[in-house]
Amino acid sequence: MYEDRRDADAAPGEGGQQSLAAKKNPAAREARPERSPRWARLLVALGLLMMLLSGLTLAGGRFLADRYLGNVHQESLLGAAAAPRPVAVRPASAHALIDGPINLLLVGIDERVEDPSNGARADSIIIVHIPASHDHVYLISIPRDSQVEIPPYGRTGYPGGTDKINAAFAYGFLERGGRAGGFELLALTINRLTGITFNAGAIVNFDGLRAVVDAVGGVSMCIDEQTASVHIGQDADGRLAAPYRLVPPDYHPVPIPGVRPQVYQVGCQPLAGWQALDYVRQRELIPDGDYGRQRHQQQLISTLYKKIAKAGLLTDPLATDRALRAVGDAVTFDGNGVSLPDWVMMLKNIEPNAITMVKTNGGQYNTQVIGGREFEFFTDVSKQMFAAARNDTLATFVAAHPDWVNAAATP
């Protein structure tokens, strides 16, 4: 059985230690925690790689996009979970044409680079659906505690079994599987669950999200529920410290005396990279838990893209350079045999407001306790939602279930 380590060891400044930057500059204590959360290899690949580069082609054509593509690490991730390639190749001077509806798998992982034997897990799982018109994006988050059937995986000798969906990445990562093995087994698990195969996939590294937010000068987000951080706080002397311990086996938060947590109050406000990352990471102390965290993650993707597309960053060479370098350094991408420039050109017609964020299970818990462990189960309507993504009828599903759409967080 895979042990879910959750976020217990991911707090910046754990042990109450002050960062070197804060020691040299007291203002740094307020401005930027030094250590980035380990779970946060998340969400940037579509919102900030695909769509940012797509928007860039509108401003400067393929030349500007091509300049940055060498920074993007490309690797075969999907393996047997890859969809057939519905590609008609245009003349040599033009881009390939990607026909039909598209599904991408976006995964944020918690990986111990310094200790590979400790494995890796998928902390954020998003299905990205693009209809055949290629002018809209739907984001569907899968709760990481969802109970699923994980298929056997010969690459690591995993025999198959029932577990939480985030364990699939861990079982594929074992032994020689690595990140590619983890991604493939997770994708195969989702295929067994939903029938969806994937046209592309991506992983994002530790500092990807924070670096991109900082590169664009921060974001303004409308906080929709008071959110206290279990990871970032200050002690009585103003030093950075973790305000809670997450105690196994259920990893409930226990306050650490004398440490005041970072609190995000309801309302629209500017967020630096570390704040945005910390806010969308929280689930332990908010009423809707993991569903709230999924909503906040989706909102951050949408907010980032809208800022980049609407605020003129694509016409600001320095800002564009910072953002694209941050994204390129963060992403591992599998285009399933289609080049990254062709993916970029295919998505160039997606407008900033053409992002629909869909709630799995309508954003409501459907939990069962089995063997002392809590599992999420998909409702019949969620299964209809997955079928709509598979059949390219999500627009019809959303029209019939408007309460399953997450509100945007952009002021």
UniProtKB/TrEMBL annotation:
<keyword id="KW-1133">Transmembrane helix</keyword>
<keyword id="KW-0472">Membrane</keyword>
<feature type="transmembrane region" description="Helical">
    <location>
        <begin position="42"/>
        <end position="65"/>
    </location>
</feature>
<comment type="similarity">
    <text>Belongs to the LytR/CpsA/Psr (LCP) family.</text>
</comment>
<dbReference type="InterPro" id="IPR004474">
    <property type="entry name" value="LytR_CpsA_psr"/>
</dbReference>
<keyword id="KW-0812">Transmembrane</keyword>
<feature type="region of interest" description="Disordered">
    <location>
        <begin position="1"/>
        <end position="33"/>
    </location>
</feature>
<feature type="domain" description="Cell envelope-related transcriptional attenuator">
    <location>
        <begin position="121"/>
        <end position="309"/>
    </location>
</feature>
<dbReference type="Pfam" id="PF03816">
    <property type="entry name" value="LytR_cpsA_psr"/>
</dbReference>
<dbReference type="InterPro" id="IPR050922">
    <property type="entry name" value="LytR/CpsA/Psr_CW_biosynth"/>
</dbReference>
<protein>
    <recommendedName>
        <fullName>Cell envelope-related transcriptional attenuator domain-containing protein</fullName>
    </recommendedName>
</protein>
